[in-house]
Amino acid sequence: MLINEQIGEWFDHFHKNPEISWKEIKTTKKISEILTGMGVQHHTFDDVTGAVAEIGEGDRIIAVRADIDALWQEVDGVFRANHSCGHDANISMVLGALAYLREQELGGRIRFIFQPAEEKGNGAISMIERGAVDGVSHLFGVHLRPKEEIPFGKVSPAIHHGAAIFLEAKVTGEDAHGARPQQGKNALDPIFAIASFIKSIHFSPYEAYSAKMTKIQAGGESLNIIPGNAVFAVDVRAQSNAVLEELKERIDTGIRSIASLHNVEIEVNWSDYTPAAEVSEEAALIANEGIMEEVGAEGLSPAIITSGSDDFHFYTIHRPEIKAAMIGVGADLGPGLHHPKMTFNHDALDRGARVLAATLAKATFLE
Fold first, then answer.
1. DSSP class of 183
2. 340 by DSSP, 3-state: which?
3. Model confidence at 187, in pLDDT bands (50, 70, 90)?
4. What is the DSSP letter of 34?
5. CATH number, domain at 231?
6. Which residue range or ranges hold the Peptidase M20 dimerisation domain (predicted)?
7. pLDDT by residue (tens digit) across 189-202?
């Protein structure tokens, strides 16, 4: 079977069998079966999902990462695992790159990291802790991009993701009858105040950032009870790690003040922090050369700046000596990433795999 046809078959399998973060058991097993079938040495882990494979010889180690988890979301009225972020495509492109590379002469070793739980924001750390990037000099990733970022047929050498963090909070007040609000502590009033407050936080117009409420849950079936308890969540993003940290601090301070003003308790939990990209100019240049080799100047797209985030960038936060870049593949993707009905042109899969293979091969021959 031709490699491009095999990539399509792999994609079909992973697309039809999505698994959520930390539950990618069958996905890991399938990846292991594919690697075994190709005669590629690899290992899995006893305590987490995911796999690591390696080809080539020598002291230099170049790595590539594929995220393997799916989202949990409502699709046609039913909540289920769903590959609406394209990780099924990422797995298939990385396996395709491996298929193209395993018979080539290489200047070093190439390590293939099939990482769990990108959507939870901590899967990369689990791989770092288990030695997946030990000895690695350059790290590459790959991801399909929405049509508004890159048109079909073009490939970008780097994606400059923003930083993100999520706030989940619980308001504890006291229920009251709708006719006697003075007897209780309304949990909704401070939430509305917080929603208004976060819109009033401003930075330089040259900085990209946002904070918006994404969940409020309060009250029950009785419409004459003012709820004393509620939970809410806020999605916080910035293009730089420094702005995100300051935005987080301002929100923390504002919530404490609003809690005091309304005489309620607000318990705050920050989670799923994902850092902004630290793109290596050298790694992006290597990817640029790989793109030129496979699709030519007409297929080269500039680097992308996006407010989306990816835990890929934890690798360089924890191992700053690693030179990293994530390749973006134009795929006519719409309506958008994380949309439950996301679709794309599958012809992009082989193009992404070939560009990735060329990039990785070039990196092994660096002096």
1. G
2. coil
3. very high
4. H
5. 3.30.70.360
6. 164-255
7. 999 999 999 999 99
Position 1 confidence tier, pLDDT thresholds 50, 70, 90: confident
Asked if 332 and 345 touch (Cβ cutoff 8 Å), the reply is yes
Beta strands in 219-307 (DSSP E): 225-226, 229-238, 265-274, 304-306
Domain that holds residue 270: 163-274
The predicted structure's pLDDT at residue 103: 85
User: For residue 122, what pLDDT band results from cuts at 50, 70 and 90?
Assistant: confident
Question: Is-contact 315 141, C-beta < 8 A?
Answer: no
Q: What would the two tokens of residue 335 be?
A: 């309506």
Q: Are residues 268 and 281 in the same domain?
A: no
CA dist., res. 200 & res. 212, Å (int): 11
Query: Is the pLDDT assigned to residue 317 strictly greater than 80?
Result: yes
CB 311 within 8 A of CB 87: no
Strands 304-306 and 159-161: parallel
In whole angstroms, how large is the CA radius of gyration of the chain? 23
Q: Cβ–Cβ contacts within 10 Å for residue 196, how many?
A: 10
- The answer on pLDDT for 165 being more than 80 is yes
Tokens of 240: 């730089």
Amino acid identity at 260: S
